């Protein structure tokens, strides 16, 4: 005889929940209705309530890549789904299923402890596993899309749980189907495919410099080097509010790159797809004199021009005002448009 199925405990609902500690910019924001989602099974009930009241809603994970307004009207789903396990060990790959609420850096650390290298270049990126594919996070020559096998999610329109293949996620540079269509799916679990054959990726300038005298670094050495670089370049959100890299590195045609190079000999860039070149947004901003500058309660970090910071009482409006000043100056000086990386709620 089958044992009875127990209904999941309902998601905890807190009205007017302060979110200052749920976003790394440290912005004072209040969620009118905050639902704590501890298991995927709670989502259908919550979404049914939201639909019956016709409420606006959004997802919030670790809050590391968002700009929050003072009030988030309607419902905010706080994703806390944990758990990680190896689900299959194939001839060439290992599959790992990870809950959307797991801390990203802790997961990367866990993979190395389990001798499953591949994600070490993505160490110390703040946020949760569930948020990572939405932005298609990347750093030092590695993008998460290369390691995702499939994603488990709740389809809001169909009111059903679905599996999305890597190709269905439509990954692009710091982009995905989820980012373009934020109200279609709620990510509950990410399944990674980690190749058993590992190869060091240290071609990015900052990382290459760390291994000038070491032609064969281990995954652990790369992990530590990435942590060292990021700690130096990026401020700790617990000390000063920030969302890491604020602008995407712009990709331009080779012809435009060659023209800029004639005028700016020190132009920092990286190879991209054939016929295009990726520019270092931080270098462009630095050349415009913004590094270390302050505008009221917000500013540009003194060690990395790509990072905007909240000195204490900044608002979303303050941050976006500073961002526009930077965008305007870079466009005027270089003829290049900078796109904001964090999601604006």
Structural description of this entry:
It is a single chain. The protein has 345 residues and is an alpha+beta fold. 25% of the residues lie in helices and 28% in strands. A 5-stranded antiparallel sheet has the order 6-7-12-10-11, with no helix packed on it. A 4-stranded mixed sheet has the order 1-2-5-3, covered by helices on one side. The protein is globular and about 65 Å long.
Write out key terms for the chains shown.
alpha+beta, about 30% strand, single chain, 20 strands, globular, about 25% helix, about 350 residues, four-stranded mixed β-sheet
Produce the secondary structure layout.
Layout (H helix, E strand, L loop, with lengths): L11 E7 L11 E8 L5 H10 L4 E4 L5 E2 L3 E9 L4 E6 L3 E7 L4 H10 L18 H4 L2 E2 L2 E2 L4 E8 L4 E6 L11 H4 L4 E11 L9 H6 L8 H15 L7 E5 L5 E3 H10 L5 E3 L4 E4 L1 H7 L6 E2 L2 E3 L6 E4 L5 H19 L8 E2 L1
Number of helices: 9
The span between the termini is 49 Å
Proportion of residues in β-strands? 25-35%
Rounded to an integer, what's the Rg over CA atoms?
21 Å
Strand order of the largest sheet: 6-7-12-10-11
Helix content: 10-25%
Helix/strand order: EEHEEEEEHHEEEEHEHHEEHEEHEEEHE
Biggest pleated-sheet summary: 5 strands, antiparallel
């Amino acid at each position: 005889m089958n044992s009875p199925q127990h209904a999941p405990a309902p998601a905890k609902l807190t009205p007017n929940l302060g979110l200052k500690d749920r976003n790394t910019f440290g912005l004072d924001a209040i969620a009118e209705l905050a639902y704590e989602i501890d298991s995927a099974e709670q989502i259908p009930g919550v979404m049914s309530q939201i639909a019956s009241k016709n409420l606006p809603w959004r997802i919030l994970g670790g809050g590391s890549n968002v700009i929050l307004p003072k009030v988030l009207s309607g419902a905010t789903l706080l994703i806390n789904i944990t758990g990680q396990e190896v689900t299959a060990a194939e001839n060439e790959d290992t599959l790992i299923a990870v809950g959307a609420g797991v801390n990203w850096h802790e997961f990367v650390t866990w993979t190395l402890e389990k001798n499953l290298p591949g994600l070490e270049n993505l160490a110390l990126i703040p946020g949760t596993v569930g948020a990572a594919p939405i932005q298609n996070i990347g750093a030092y020559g590695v993008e998460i899309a290369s390691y995702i096998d499939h994603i488990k999610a709740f389809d809001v329109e169909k009111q059903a749980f679905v599996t999305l293949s890597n190709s269905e996620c439509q990954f692009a540079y710091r982009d995905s189907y989820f980012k373009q269509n934020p109200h279609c799916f709620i990510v509950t679990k990410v399944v990674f495919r980690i190749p058993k054959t590992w190869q060091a990726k240290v071609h990015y300038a900052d990382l290459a410099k760390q291994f000038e005298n070491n032609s064969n670094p281990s995954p652990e050495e790369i992990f530590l080097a990435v942590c060292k670089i990021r700690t130096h370049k990026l401020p700790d959100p617990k000390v000063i509010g920030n969302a890491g890299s604020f602008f995407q590195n712009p990709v331009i045609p080779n012809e435009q790159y060659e023209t800029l190079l004639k005028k700016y000999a020190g132009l920092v860039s990286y190879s991209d797809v054939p016929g295009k070149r990726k520019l270092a947004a931080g270098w462009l901003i630095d050349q415009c004199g913004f590094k270390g500058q302050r505008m009221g309660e917000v500013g540009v970090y003194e060690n990395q021009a790509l990072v905007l910071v909240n000195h204490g009482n900044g608002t979303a409006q303050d941050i976006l005002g500073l961002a526009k000043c930077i965008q305007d100056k870079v466009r005027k000086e270089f003829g290049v448009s900078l796109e904001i990386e964090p999601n604006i709620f």
